[in-house]
TrEMBL record:
Entries under SUPFAM superfamilies matching the protein: Family A G protein-coupled receptor-like
Organism phylogeny: Eukaryota, Metazoa, Chordata, Craniata, Vertebrata
Broad class of where this protein is predominantly found: membrane
Region feature Disordered, mapped onto this chain: 331-356
Source species of the chain: Marmota monax (Woodchuck)
PANTHER family linked: G-PROTEIN COUPLED RECEPTOR, OLFACTORY RECEPTOR 1346
Gene Ontology cellular component annotations, sorted alphabetically: plasma membrane
Membrane spanning stretches: 30-54, 66-90, 96-124, 144-162, 204-225, 246-265, 277-296
Keywords: Cell membrane, Disulfide bond, G-protein coupled receptor, Glycoprotein, Membrane, Olfaction, Receptor, Sensory transduction, Transducer, Transmembrane, Transmembrane helix
Protein name stated in the entry: G-protein coupled receptors family 1 profile domain-containing protein
Length: 356
């Protein structure tokens, strides 16, 4: 009873103090420079990808449409958590008003849920491209792609609205210190002085629906892709099919592995410092590495990027091999690909068009 009265008499916290990553001055200065560079690099990389996809018709395909959405999401995602991280490193500790903390939580949950659904949509796109190639233009027509993208963004907003409203309705009476670099769900629930069973239930159900549901869709897609690759007549064809999935597999594997490890560990081995390190991986490192992975693994994106520097290189590299060899002289010497068919007939050669 005395404990209840003591809690009731405490004033509700109107702000939170974020301890950030480190309290040592020398370490803070180094980390500030590193994370600021990563933040600017992330914005530059993703802006470049979005601009390339919007300005080049060669990349106006479903796979690159989803990649553009992912790049937009990564820029928003890192911009939500990075300001408080940098503020905490420049002037630790960082004080955040209650309303700003809830707003950051809302955006973070929304973008995280959107990323889960978007990664599942990208896995479905690869499944249709490899397992049902003849139906790909119909199953992944523009209306379907826009529907999947809008569902990802709206689904994230809906889930975040439910979870954030539950967390915002709690009372925070005790110490208002969050041992984290942004307002996350677990640290806020640990500070609440009211009953959080209902909020934890809502959090658990939403995690099952969004996180586990999207993971199951992605896994089912790649299981079907694996079975289709094993049935392909040649190993070279199978490797070519898998190469189109490699970038997405790497990004998805890093994201889901870190998040699963972070939120599925038993309470008795929970470490706050480990939580912060893992949070850095999926809120800072992954958005910075994703564009590099996609650009290094994707031939079309590499070609378009080189074409921005060498305008005539992109059209030749993106052109299929058969199309580049569509005009050849079968006999004689000194006749190059791309010659006019009339000139080929005058030279005594044959002009064969293998593909357009």
């Amino acid at each position: 009873m005395e404990r209840s009265l003591e809690l009731a008499n405490r004033s509700i916290s109107h702000s939170f103090i974020l301890l950030g990553l480190s309290t040592r001055l020398g370490v803070r200065d180094v980390l500030f420079a590193v994370f600021l560079a990563l933040y600017l690099l992330t914005l530059l990389e993703n802006t470049l990808i979005v601009s390339l996809i919007c300005s080049h018709s060669e990349l106006r395909k479903p796979m690159y449409f989803f990649l553009g959405n992912l790049s937009c999401l990564e820029m928003c995602y890192v911009s939500v958590t990075m300001p408080t991280l940098l503020a905490g490193l420049s002037s630790s500790p960082c004080q955040v008003p209650f309303a700003a903390c809830i707003a950051q939580l809302f955006l973070f949950i929304s973008l995280m849920a959107t990323k889960c659904i978007l990664l599942a949509s990208m896995a479905y796109d690869r499944y249709v491209a490899i397992c049902r190639p003849l139906h790909y233009p119909l199953l992944m027509r523009p209306q379907v792609c826009w529907g999947l993208a809008l569902s990802s963004w709206l689904g994230g907003l809906l889930v975040s609205a439910v979870k954030t409203s539950c967390i915002a309705s709690l009372s925070y009476c005790g110490p208002n210190v969050l041992n984290h670099f942004f307002c996350d769900v677990s640290p806020l629930l640990n500070l609440s002085c009211t009953h959080v069973a209902l909020t934890e239930l809502v959090d658990f159900i939403s995690a099952i629906v969004i996180f586990c549901g999207s993971l199951l869709v992605a896994l089912a897609s790649y299981v079907a892709i694996g079975r289709a690759v094993l049935r392909m007549p040649s190993a070279a064809t199978g490797r070519k099919a898998l190469s189109t999935c490699a970038s997405h597999l790497v990004v998805m594997g890093i994201f889901y592995t870190v998040v699963l490890f972070m939120y599925s560990r038993p309470t008795h081995i929970e470490s706050t410092d480990l939580n912060k390190v893992l949070s850095v991986v999926y809120t800072v490192v992954t958005p910075a590495c994703s564009p590099i992975v996609y650009c290094l693994r994707n031939r079309a994106v590499r070609a378009v990027m080189r074409g921005a520097l060498r305008p005539h290189a992109v059209s030749r590299e993106l052109q299929p091999t058969g199309a580049r060899q569509c005009r050849v002289k079968s006999t004689g010497a000194g006749f190059k690909a791309g010659s006019d068919p009339e000139e080929a007939r005058k030279a005594g050669g044959k002009w064969t068009e293998h593909s357009r």
